[in-house]
Design a protein that fits this description.
This protein is of the alpha+beta class and 139 residues long. The chain has five helices and four strands; from the N terminus they run αααβαββαβ. It has a four-stranded antiparallel sheet with strand order 2-3-1-4.
Length: 139
């Protein structure tokens, strides 16, 4: 079970997971060893499943980010799933309910790259594309 102190640690890690145990401990008035034990417990229990890297896609040459809603054709689900997993442009993909089967976040170089990517997707279903203008709120 996660208590109030664990939640404080989680919130600190969400903003900067590279802080030392000592730095976290200073913020919540715990010893570094107590912080280490609590984080280890959170990792072992699966509450913390990993640490990730946030990249600036524009600085990596991907000037376009889009959401694509994909309605998979009947009988194409398994092949679409394995194909989507192999595309480096796909940054996140979710299987969802409703008219569409997938909600995908994709990072692309430019409009031509987007067109080429959509051309791949039409083999599996009907894509609906939404250009991301900016990120709003928490990440």
């Amino acid at each position: 079970m996660v208590d109030a102190t664990d939640l404080k640690i989680i919130n600190i890690l969400k903003s900067n997971s590279r802080l030392s145990f000592a730095e976290i401990g200073k913020q919540i008035f715990l010893s570094p060893s107590s912080v280490r034990e609590r984080i280890k417990k959170l990792e072992d229990s699966g509450v913390i499943r990993g640490y990730t890297l946030r990249l600036d896609q524009a600085l990596m040459g991907n000037n376009l980010e889009v959401f694509i809603m994909l309605k998979i054709f009947s009988g194409k689900f398994k092949s679409a799933l394995s194909e989507l997993e192999s595309y480096p442009e796909v940054k996140e993909a979710y299987r969802i309910t409703g008219q569409h089967n997938f909600h995908i976040r994709v990072a692309l170089r430019d409009q031509l790259h987007l067109q080429q990517f959509i051309d791949k997707l039409v083999n599996f279903g009907e894509p609906t594309t939404h250009l991301i203008l900016s990120r709003v709120g928490k990440e």
